[in-house]
Write a structure and sequence with these properties.
Layout lengths: L2 H9 L2 H12 L4 H8 L3 H13 L3 E3 L10 E3 L1 H13 L8
Antiparallel strand pairs: 1-2
Amino acid sequence: MNDWDLISFVKSSDKRLRILSMLKNSVSTPSDISSKLGIPISHVSSTLSELIEHKIVICLTPERRKTKLYQITEKGIKVLSKIDEISGGSISEE
């Protein structure tokens, strides 16, 4: 997938964009993301899996069953920056 495909992939889902924006600011758990963004935890988990598959997010604690920590990757930061640039700086977490 090239950069434009990734940008389109993230931009096409409000959940992907909001979760990625939140992870830009801090490492977080699915429960924290769910609580802060008001997205059901099952949706957060499936969205994180999609973002991991595209190497935009990584799990820092893959061996843990609970309270896994997630972080945006450099690739994810570049994608988010490009989206912010083409959106005129209107990306927000909320």
